[in-house]
């Protein structure tokens, strides 16, 4: 019940904020959001308006919270990560039309194999990364029934692919469905391009109302931190326990620690993410707030300040030395979303975390063309490849180190 209360408060806060900003324009803004293409990078604040973007986000979080309730799910850290990620991306790509064909496709697969609807529930939630495909296939030229069928097929394919992709990176990429969606999107994007149906490049990036947005985001995450402190007896007792976890999937802090400590972590990560965007000179907008919401949401499912810091440092090193401006949209988002690789730092140490972040900063700007922007979790796609590349190298270095130590000990014993 405590997590449901949090979802309700967060959803209503976003909706009320959206209504207060846009007022009577809200219907027009929401209509624009639903009918317009929304593949990467489409900031709903720049496309339609700040109010419409926030109302869409809050309403979508409310709907997915209701679905959890309808299916009688006992919410956990995975629930927090899923709902907050949906809310974040509802500011730049997801809306209350384009997510449902994907969700329905996942549920159709679940029903046909005879599983409980809750089995692949979070695959459905995170699978809405491919929501822009629904808009492109169904609404690009009026309502297309064939496009609806293809969108359902996309959702239908996600569960078996997601289960397999998890075995590839072994849980060291927290955005597993983002990696899955990237691979599926790569094939779909290639087919669309082959038949000259691929969308044209798109870039919407909002830079207005910075004070207003900063006040709202700080209020949201300070309130979350205070909520956690209240549940935890107005203390940080037990918070150090979170920092001991590597964060590898599935590290659910609600189940492993407590709700109070989890919300403290969620609030802290949200404050850190918001502060980074402002201090770096970038802008608070749909994509960056989406990144902050995802960072904070996964504060319930694997991320904490200790394991994200090396990855963030690695991305910053890449941003400071590569051809991209340090606070460019791509590098700012890489810092926020690149924390998907936090388990590498948590499991193998800070050095490997820095290396992972550095590699991610280069790879993430070169993979979006593969899926034609149809996979909103582009950093999850990139993070999967970084993990695939690093894991065997880490193992090889460990074996070499152990062999050298064994040889050294052998020589010592011989002397």
Automatic annotation (TrEMBL):
Top-rank taxon, per record: Bacteria
NAD is among the record's keywords: no
Transmembrane segments: 46-68, 75-92, 98-114, 121-139, 145-166, 173-191, 211-229, 249-272, 278-301, 308-324, 351-370, 376-394
Record keywords: Membrane, Transmembrane, Transmembrane helix
Matching Pfam families: DUF1576
Protein name per Swiss-Prot or TrEMBL: DUF1576 domain-containing protein
Organism: Fervidobacterium thailandense
């Amino acid at each position: 019940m405590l997590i449901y209360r949090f979802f309700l408060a967060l959803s209503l806060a976003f909706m009320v904020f959206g209504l207060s900003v846009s007022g009577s324009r809200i219907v027009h803004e929401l209509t624009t959001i639903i009918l317009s293409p929304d593949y990467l990078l489409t900031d709903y604040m720049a496309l339609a308006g700040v109010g419409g973007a926030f109302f869409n986000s809050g309403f979508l979080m409310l709907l997915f919270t209701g679905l959890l309730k309808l299916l009688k799910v006992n919410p956990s850290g995975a629930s927090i990560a899923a709902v907050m990620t949906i809310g974040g991306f509802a500011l730049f790509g997801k809306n209350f039309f384009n997510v449902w064909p994907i969700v329905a496709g996942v549920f159709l697969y679940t029903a046909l194999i005879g599983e409980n609807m809750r089995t692949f529930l979070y695959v459905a939630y995170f699978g809405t990364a491919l929501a822009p495909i629904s808009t492109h296939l169904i609404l690009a030229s009026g309502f297309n029934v064939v496009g609806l069928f293809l969108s359902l097929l996309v959702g239908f394919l996600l569960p078996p692919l997601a289960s397999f992709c998890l075995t590839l990176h072994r849980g060291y990429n927290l955005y597993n469905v983002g990696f899955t969606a990237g691979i599926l999107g790569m094939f779909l994007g290639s087919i669309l391009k082959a038949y000259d149906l691929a969308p044209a490049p798109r870039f919407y990036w909002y830079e207005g109302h910075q004070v207003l947005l900063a006040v709202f985001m700080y209020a949201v995450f300070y309130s979350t931190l205070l909520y956690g402190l209240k549940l935890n007896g107005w203390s940080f007792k037990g918070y150090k326990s979170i920092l001991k976890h590597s964060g590898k999937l599935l590290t659910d802090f609600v189940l492993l620690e407590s709700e109070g400590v989890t919300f403290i972590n969620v609030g802290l990560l949200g404050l850190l993410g918001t502060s980074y965007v402002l201090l770096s000179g970038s802008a608070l907008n749909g994509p960056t707030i989406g990144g902050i919401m995802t960072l904070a949401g996964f504060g319930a499912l694997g991320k904490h300040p200790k394991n994200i810091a090396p990855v963030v440092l690695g991305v910053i090193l890449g941003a400071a030395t590569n051809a991209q401006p340090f606070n460019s949209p791509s590098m700012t988002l890489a810092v926020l979303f690149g924390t998907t690789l936090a388990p590498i730092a948590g499991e193998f140490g800070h050095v490997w975390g820095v290396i992972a972040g550095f590699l991610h900063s280069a790879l993430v700007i070169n993979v979006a063309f593969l899926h034609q922007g149809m996979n909103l979790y582009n950093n999850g796609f990139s993070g999967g490849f970084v993990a695939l590349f690093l894991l065997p190298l880490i193992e090889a270095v460990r074996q070499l180190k152990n062999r050298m130590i064994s040889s050294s000990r052998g020589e010592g014993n011989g002397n």
